[in-house]
Amino acid sequence: MENGHNFQEVSNPKYDCLLFDIDDTLYPLNSGMSAHTARNIEEYMLQKLGMEAEKVPELCNSLYKTYGTTMAGLRAIGYDFDYDDFHSSVHGRLPYSLLKPDPVLKGILQSLPCRKLGFTNADTGHAIRVLKRLGLEDCFERIISFDTLNSSDDIRPPDDKNGEEIFDFCEYTRRPDSGMVLPKTPVICKPFDNAFEKAFKLADIDPQRTLFFDDSIRNLMTAKRLGLHTVAVGTSVRSTGVDHALESIHNIREAFPELWEADEKNEIVNYKVAIETTVKA
Ligand SMILES: [Mg+2]
């Protein structure tokens, strides 16, 4: 009877996969990386897209809120630019030296007996540079990034935009009842359902058995609606859509001891089986 009980717990742990956002989740917000990213995006809008300086900060922020990322919004309203050029201008110039190796987090991740994946709106190159700086490059099965979600097959040339005017997003936000139709973006990114659904399919993730860690409440809200168990990182506040809140990613062990218990019980069962086999032999 006791063995039967053990077997049930070992074979059916609540979670078999951990899905992690990267920026401001695997390292703290006060690293300064976020502020540098925002500054680089604004510079790109100003210098490469030739936008008016006084409009840039507000537009950058409203496009981010509406389309998930500013880049997704810029493409939606009609700007034509190369994704790789955007990423190298925005992420390629970041001061990665702000990030320091995190051996404590590395120890936690390496000891976790379940799948671990990264899930970011940034490009793969940025994700790898961040993980290398943190010393976590060997801790994840795979990273689902902008490049994964927006494969070259999905990136269509802006052929239907040629000759069209840029959609006046400022006018749209000023006069929401004007009847202007908000254009769609070709970019797939969090916090939208299609990004999560694509990630589940590509990485064979069962949301019901997955813990999702992110610092963004809107990402967590979508995740919760789609069946993931959600963990807000960098806060102690459990708002709507948040199952758990961790002030620091370092608190995983205290918050979820059961993630390790499954493995410990497995070891005990294996040990028992080994002893019984030896005795019978
Ligand atoms: Mg983040």
UniProtKB/TrEMBL annotation:
NCBIfam families: HAD-SF-IA-v3 (TIGR01509), Pyr-5-nucltdase (TIGR01993). The lineage of its organism: Eukaryota, Viridiplantae, Streptophyta, Embryophyta, Tracheophyta. This is Ripening-related protein. It holds the Pfam family Hydrolase.
